[in-house]
Amino acid sequence: MNQQELQALRTMIVAHKRWDMMFGLLGILALMIALMTFTALFADMAINGLGRISWEFLTSFPSRRAANAGILSAWVGSVLVMLVTAVAAVPLGVAAGVYLEEYARKNWVTDIIEINVSNLAGVPSIIYGLLALGLFVYTFGLGQSILTAGLTLALLILPVVIVATREAIRSIPQIIREGAYACGATTWQVVSDHIVPYSSAGILTGVIIGMARAIGETAPIITVGALTFIAFLPPAPFTGEPPAGVFDWLFAPFTVMPIQMFNWTSRPEAAFLANAAAAGFILVLMTLAMNGLAIWLRYRLRKNINW
Length: 307
Hints:
Number of domains: 2
CATH class of the largest domain: Mainly Alpha
Strand content: under 5%
Number of strands: 0
Radius of gyration: 25 Å
CATH topology of the largest domain: MetI-like fold
Helix content: over 70%
């Protein structure tokens, strides 16, 4: 290589490094804009709502008087709906992802399934609400209940959990599978003893993303019949006259935090807007707490894995 070619190569390398630096700066700028936007919105919500947050606000039912209104029925409903969503979506999504990645044969049928699962992750949430209205409410007769809402949100996040599970499994080195098979392990032993434990951190990441999306959804919950004003809680097991059953709360009417916020923001009084800001602040804290728990579990799982 002569001197002229070396100089051309150096010029090309310098140009590429310049473009890399520009792309990095653009990425940092985009990140800062996103963080500043979130910080500004969160700060505005905190400034407007912190004055209303109190123990009475958390333990009071909604009221037509802003000073007496609380979010008890809303946050209890959100917690119960998220519980049903997690129980329905996480095992099914993880099992479907494991099957598609480790058991299913690679043919046109699995290709169609994979394409449809990926496409379902981008379907508007209102479509899931309409599907749930026809399927769970009218066909299965589950009514406008916590169970219906939980199953609706489970359908919403199921594609996210499946895709995240598959991506986490794909990140496991092939040599681990080959080593296990060489020792005489069956497919189930490889999956249960190696693949799922090693990929559990990535799977939890997908669950975090899905649950964070579900807890803030409003359109599908309104579609299946969530109440905008509710002044009672679902029946606790073995309470009341006659005593409620263990699962009677699944079929109770409900509301959730986003709908309660929507109800307050639709009113002209400034005091109700402060209530909505306080409820939004608490909803963000609930989401952060849920994500923090999942991140802690992911850290513990990674720490206990011996490659």
